[in-house]
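Job type: complex structure
Entries:
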Amino acid sequence: MPAFRAKELKGDVRQPWGTIVAFLLPALTFYVALTAYPAIRTLWNSFHRVLPRREEFVGIANYSELIKDEIFWKAVSNTVTWACISPVIEVTVALLLALALYAKVPGARFFRVAWFTPVLMSYIVVGILWMWIYNYDWGPLNTLLRAIGLGALAQPWLGSPDTALGALILVTSWMWVGFNMVVLLAALHSLPKDVIEAAELDNCGWSAKLVFVIIPLIRATLLNLVVLSFIGKMKIFDLVWITTKGNPLWSTETVSTYVYKRAFEWTTFDLGYPSTIATVWFVIVLATVLLLTWLFRTREKLEY
Amino acid sequence: MRSKLLSVLAGAALAWNALAAQAAAQTKEITFWSHWAAEMPKRTFVEKVIADFEAKNPDIKIKATWYEKTALYAALKTALRAGQAPDVFYAEPDQVEYMDSGFLLDLSELNWAAVEPWAKEAWMYKGKPYGLPLEAWTVELYYNKKMLDELGVKLPDNLQLSPDAFLDMVKKAKAKGITPMSLGAGDRPFTGAHLVHEALLKKLGVEDYSKLLAGKLAWTDPRVVETLTWIRSLTDAGLLPATFTTMKLAEAHIYFHTNPGALTFLNGSWYTSRAFNPVDKGGQPEDFQLGIMQFPSVPGAVCNECRTIAVGGSYVANAETEHKAEVIKFLNSFLSPEVGNEWLENVKVQTGIKSDPSKMNDKQASEYFAMIAKTNAGAKYHFGLPIQVMTGKPKEVFTQVFNNAFPAGNISVEDAVKQMDAAN
């Protein structure tokens, strides 16, 4: 196209601002009202004592108090432990299950549904279910231990500070393994058949094929699942609230449950301090996700 | 003719609208939010008071909304901040944040002569009363009479076992495979702590116990340590169910009277609101032989007759109500001995309204209150549970340590008292 013609056309094209605004406005309104404003307001609150009908600027007093708050650090420790352990368990077990389904084990169709089912349940249902399973007197877990002569190991799993967090980590892993499995199964099914067949022609064994061919090919999916699981666990609330409320001795307290307690259960209307916790935690989660994304970035695109 | 008819109809409609508007303007509506949506005896009682009030005051309409406690508290926190709270609502005396923030109406104009002085005291804040104390309760040690007889344990005349006799009873029950005491801390921040606070109150007496809760007496005080060590000896002997930390309040009731059955149950005197329901609604078996004994005497105690009395469910008024006179009138309709007796008879829990249990017709209620009267004879009261007195971090630490971890044996006496002193 001659240069003058292109210029002429460009000059004729007018931006349809009315249409652009009409399309953007609803989404933008919702975003500003329900995400941007609350986030900015939370940051603002963190520098104030926010009481009904009055606000007092307190500078960094809330942040200073937070640094000395032992319960907050206990909650941070629990949450980080949860967020680090759970993704590893979930993704590892999910990969094994996905491989079993990919290899078409007998009853694969049934197992696919059975293993996926927990993720369809709400945390409320899952929490109640596992409280029954962990019940000291008649829960299936202790009943099983007693039946096989390991009664000495039976204990109130959610009632002891030594086991409560581990018991809850197991619950979230059980719940989310199915979701990870389905995503990984889809990734496995999309693997290029010629690469797998080439590996087989080279007499590559099952374990070598898994480690050197399959896992590198689905690496991006695995890492995305790890990051998603990590973010989910950094925000965990419902399951703890239903089962232990952070007990015993804050051994299952998470940052989210602590924010809720400080905002709504500490016989005060002050929203400043809970906002400080929320702000600090938002920054930590964001920084960690950015770090993970940077660490897991793919420098070279795999070609096959 | 047709146009005349239309004019007449239009005139009539206008007149009707005007009359309706006038009537609406004359009828004042009081909004009322209350807990007890699912606790039918209490709800039925309040609904009757409302119906009676509306019948006597046709110009006032009470618009009631019923909640469960957690949902109510969450709704109120938002509504109060937004200036959209109801005129009258449910509250408990530990919610000092309402008074701190100036949300509650000063109720000095109520008919306080009809209220027990100790119940009024629970709602006093900076010299003014802010709540109508409807529900009151004491901490009672219930027991299964049949089970106790089978163990061969005899109660003394004052119904209070000595520390040694109590420990002996615990051991006897354990030897027979019976859980000595049903207690659960799974869904309440105070039920598990009854064991600790009743013992500390007896050991220290009202004055020093109040100082302890106010942070003016160290938890490392030898008397406190001695008492906690005594409690630890009881829990080590197997006093509580292994499921104590996660057992919910409703489950603790069932655990005591039905399955598997425990010898005793330390609980608020509102035991009746669940246990006196029909069996299919979680009530105790019809042939269940309920008894009430005193909390055992505590080694070296200065006040073994001391016990906790708490004001629970109450009604307060919104400081911003536009119908102050009507609100006062409505709350006053609760305050008569007849209404107090109706509460006792129907709800079977004590009340802060002056009443006369001797005039009750209900056999079960009068027998129950006779037992309560016997265990409370000569009692010296401390008003309020620890979590009603404490606020902020001490309250949180007390809840975690003494409502849950300490009775469960998850924390030593030394660490427990250190945590409390650090929180103060």
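Summary: Chain A touches chain B through 29 residues (CB under 8 Å). The domain at 63-295 of chain A is CATH 1.10.3720.10 (MetI-like fold).
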